[in-house]
Design brief:
Elements: H1 4-9, E1 23-34, E2 37-44, E3 57-62, E4 66-71, E5 82-87, H2 91-97, E6 104-111, E7 124-130, H3 134-146, E8 154-160, H4 169-176, E9 182-187, E10 197-198, E11 215-220, H5 223-236, E12 243-246, E13 262-263, E14 266-267, H6 268-271, E15 274-276, H7 277-284
Parallel strand pairs: 7-8, 7-11, 8-9, 9-10, 11-12
Antiparallel strand pairs: 1-2, 1-6, 2-5, 3-4, 3-6, 12-15, 13-14
């Protein structure tokens, strides 16, 4: 069982200064992932980039527009940049995805809890991602692959609606060429050129190779997908306290003061976004909470 104190003891310290005041960062690189989604690499205009753990998030501020919570999607081993994959779904995210190289962006963070990649050492790892949910999981994937000898079998299961919606296509192809891990990709709706799996990503869990009694599962995606993924993992024999989910809620302050992201008695911004399933099972079963 993973203890909260042990995991939190390994969390990086919060960035110094007022948590409500954004630091100025500069956009160094932009990569167009999908028609409505970009990946930004940003560096601080002054001082070092704060440390973070896989699964944490930042509040990104588009000056004159607003801010939005975005998971960090880069490699923790890169101590120079923050990497964020952002989809255009509102005013603030639209402004952020429209930035040019050299533009300024405000950053508050990092905030939140992390994937238990250290506590999971010695276990099999099953990573289940749906759509943009692959972005918050990518730092955990980088960490696990960089420390491959510390883990058992590794299965990466990714699902998206259409082949053209596939995030990180080149990286997925590179991971699939790694004979030391298992990578399965599925789409809900195939086109005539698709030669892979068709169906929802939770259906891949029953076919994955792992020891259910010694497996840690990391799950992120649309909430309905995560519900079915949790059911499939439990049907396969994975213990509820070994299943970890990244929850999404409307986060405004990021430090548990405003109440926008309240999830029962907890706040996703500070008690999450990564939460152990057995601790939220009763809430997770309630739709629209």
């Amino acid at each position: 069982m993973f203890t909260e104190s042990a995991e939190m003891a390994r969390m990086p310290p919060a960035a110094s200064g007022d948590p409500f005041v954004p630091r100025i960062y500069c956009v160094d690189r932009i990569r167009r992932e999908l028609s409505d989604t970009v990946t930004l690499e940003i560096t601080p205009s002054q001082g070092p980039r704060p440390r973070y753990a896989p699964g944490q998030f930042n509040m990104l501020y588009a000056f004159g527009v607003g801010e939005v919570a975005i998971s960090i999607s880069g490699d923790c081993a890169d101590d120079r940049t923050f990497v964020h994959t952002v989809r255009d779904v509102g005013a603030a995210s639209r402004a952020i995805t429209s930035l040019d190289v050299g533009a300024a962006i405000g950053v508050r963070g990092p905030f939140g809890t992390a994937w238990p990649v250290t506590d999971a050492e010695g276990s099999d790892i099953v990573i289940v991602a749906g759509g943009l949910g692959l972005a918050p999981l990518r730092p955990a994937i980088y960490h696990v692959l960089a420390n491959r000898s510390r883990y058992g079998r590794i299965a990466i299961l990714f699902g998206t609606r259409h082949p053209q919606d596939m995030l990180y296509r080149d990286e997925l192809a590179a991971w699939r060429r790694n004979l030391d891990i298992s990578v399965e990709v599925t789409v809900d709706h195939a086109d005539r050129d698709w030669r892979g799996n068709v169906g929802v990503v939770p259906a891949l869990i029953a076919r994955a190779s792992f020891d259910p009694h010694d497996t840690v599962a990391l799950v992120c995606g649309p909430e309905i997908m995560m519900r079915f993924a949790v059911n499939a993992l439990r049907d396969a024999g994975v213990a509820p306290d070994h299943i970890h989910l990244s929850m999404e809620r409307n986060m405004k302050c990021a430090i548990g003061l405003c109440g926008h992201c309240q999830f029962g008695p907890q706040f996703v911004c500070k008690d999450g976004p990564v939460m152990r399933f057995d601790r939220i099972a009763s809430l997770f079963a309630v739709r629209e909470i």
